Amino acid sequence: MKKQFMLDIETTGIEPHTESVLQIALIEMTFTKNGFWEKGRRFEFYQHTPRQPETDFAKTHMKEIYAQCNKIPETPVAEVRESLLQFFQDGGVQPPNVYICGWNVGIFDLPFLAYHGYLLPAKYDNGVLTGDCHYRTYEIGGALQLTANLRGTVEVNSIIKEAEKQFPLLAGGNRHNAMYDCERQINILNGLIKLGHEYVASDYNL
Q: Could you tell me the fold of the domain covering 3-203?
């Protein structure tokens, strides 16, 4: 698909049945003629929670998000879903043909949002695909594994670092803020594409 949406969320924990959404971030991406993803419009939402950070990780990395979510009113989930769908439609994309990209979007972000009703997962109903977003997702984790395999390895940490150097972020930020993570993930994805281009060129002496 030429247009996708990079998604990242921050939550109070990893279990959707006991934890809540704190932040949802989306960045519209368009695949350009130069072979990379271009960043476009942004969607950012914070949800109220009365909770305070409990784990050492949350206390260290998410104090600002918790503080912001503590002081804002709660928004009904149905309203948030409508805003998300409107964001997709304003980009010329109609559900369920909304393609989502992310680090582990298919196994964490979308299931978490679906559990709480922020987005309805795609399903086939009498042979017709229904729901808010397509069941096919672009997992950056999968792209990373493919890049590693092209190089004859399964070790990915060094490749992440190499990909980040290809498209470094120019602005500072908190890696555990969903919008910043969306920005970073797009840069990593473009970095992996560039590394793939270079591998193919060298392998075939282009």
A: Nucleotidyltransferase; domain 5 (3.30.420)
